[in-house]
TrEMBL record:
General function of this protein: Has an important function as a repair enzyme for proteins that have been inactivated by oxidation. Catalyzes the reversible oxidation-reduction of methionine sulfoxide in proteins to methionine.
EC number: 1.8.4.11
Active site: 54
NCBIfam families: msrA (TIGR00401)
Family, per entry: Belongs to the MsrA Met sulfoxide reductase family.
Protein name: Peptide methionine sulfoxide reductase MsrA
Alphabetized GO MF terms: L-methionine:thioredoxin-disulfide S-oxidoreductase activity; peptide-methionine (S)-S-oxide reductase activity
UniProt enzyme class: oxidoreductase
Gene, per the UniProt record: msrA
Domain Peptide methionine sulphoxide reductase MsrA: 48-198
Native species: Pontibacter flavimaris
Record's catalysed reaction(s): [thioredoxin]-disulfide + L-methionine + H2O = L-methionine (S)-S-oxide + [thioredoxin]-dithiol; L-methionyl-[protein] + [thioredoxin]-disulfide + H2O = L-methionyl-(S)-S-oxide-[protein] + [thioredoxin]-dithiol
């Protein structure tokens, strides 16, 4: 009787753990970036979504800025639900690699985020950023409000009138439909994978140049 009761107890415990893990997975799938944002204590903060090439680089830029609480890598711009990196990176979906930036507006403004976004990638190349080629690397400002749309379009016009770029800006300004969080191993990829060949040869030179150019806007821990 004791042995049977112990077996029953172990079986019940196993089911409880399995169900808990399944429920956690379901919550992450359903709530996506919002679930991760809550873990990062960003509840109540506004967020901005941008696509500007490989999200490993884009994430590294924004997370260094004072006033930015969290940056989450993911996918947006397509119709496919729950896209995977394999689908997006191979061009089998209409999504672009994107980042969701949670920020404190009393420390950094949406306009400043726009300025950093356009300064850290080439908005004149269609479906390409450096060695990364494909529609998944297209340049997009995803807006949530009419005011964000107005600001993005006004800034693009300002850049074009100033002749900032030799070629025409091809950045899309489109409403945010859904932001899908990327797989866990993509989060904070630059910091966690310093020896990755792409990080060493492509991302690191860009990030270091960014740190030199935006030193006054960097968080203390990123100032050498």
């Amino acid at each position: 009787m004791i042995t049977r009761n112990l077996l029953f107890l172990f079986a019940a415990l196993f089911c409880f753990i399995a169900c808990s893990e399944a429920n956690t997975s379901d919550r992450m799938q359903l709530t996506g970036s919002d679930a991760l944002a809550q873990e990062e204590d960003t509840v109540g903060l506004p967020s901005a979504v941008f696509a500007g090439g490989c999200f490993w680089c884009t994430e590294a830029y924004f997370e260094r800025l004072k006033g930015v609480k969290a940056v989450i890598s993911g996918y947006s711009g397509g119709k496919e639900k729950k896209p995977t990196y394999r689908q997006v990176s191979s061009g089998l979906s209409d999504h672009a690699e994107a980042v969701q930036v949670y920020y404190n507006p009393s420390q950094i403004t949406y306009q400043e985020l726009l300025e950093v976004f356009f300064a850290t990638h080439d908005p004149t190349t269609l479906n390409r950023q450096g060695p990364d080629v494909g529609k998944q690397y297209r340049s997009i400002v995803f807006y949530k409000t009419p005011e964000e749309k107005k600001q993005a379009e006004a800034y693009i016009k300002q850049l074009e009138e100033a002749g900032t770029y030799k070629n025409k800006i091809v950045t899309h300004v489109q409403p945010l439909d859904k932001f899908w969080i990327a797989e866990e191993y993509h989060q904070d990829y630059y910091r966690r994978n310093p020896q990755d060949p792409y990080v060493v040869s492509v991302a690191r030179p860009k990030v270091r140049k960014f740190e030199d150019n935006y030193r006054s806007k960097l968080k203390r821990e990123y100032i050498e």
